[in-house]
Amino acid sequence: MTDDFFDDLLERHGDEAEFLGALRSYAASWHSDVVPKATSVETLSAPEPVYASVRVPGLEGALDTLWIGARLDPAQPQWLRGSWGEAGYVDDASGEDPVHDLRVSGVRLPAASLARIAATWVEQQLQRTLREGELDDDRRLGGRRRAGRPDARIVRRGGFAIARDGAPHE
To answer: Superkingdom of the source (predicted)?
Structure first.
């Protein structure tokens, strides 16, 4: 059920409702171990940007959450951003990772199209193979993500967390 993803305390209207409705629909079809309770929406009031998060199963440490931010207010320049973070959204002050961060600006698209772009980016990030320690705090050195030690234990592969015994969690 799509209503279970990205639960929100506010009643949204217009582009915000369209964006979140489409995002919920896409999330329900992700091939991943993400469950609805691992997703959330920040309860900022309109016309503030909408922020949504996905807690990534199998990760521990400072960076274990995917964040999406979308400014949808028609009176403002529109943008869409996505980044790895923690309890708070990682913005440009934390450094950009041009390879893995999502940045869309300079165009005006329907809210549902932005949701499709955001959902595709999240699913791509969930499908990445991640090694233990790859997303440590110092990952943003000179705009380059640490690759992790080649001998480090794989903690996620193909959208699913890897248990300590080596079997994927589904």
So the answer is: Bacteria
Distance CA 115, CA 27 (A): 10
Q: Which long-range contacts (CB under 8 A, 24 or more apart) does 65-68 make?
A: 66/122, 66/125, 66/126, 68/23, 68/102, 68/118, 68/121, 68/122
Collapse the DSSP code of 18 into the 3-class scheme (helix H, G, I; strand E, B; otherwise coil) and give the result: helix
How far is it, in rounded angstroms, from Cα 81 to Cα 91? 9
SS3 48: coil
Give the contacts of 60 (CB within 8 A, at least 6 positions apart). none
Q: Which residues contact 98 (CB under 8 A, 6 or more apart)?
A: 143
**This prediction's pTM:** 0.83
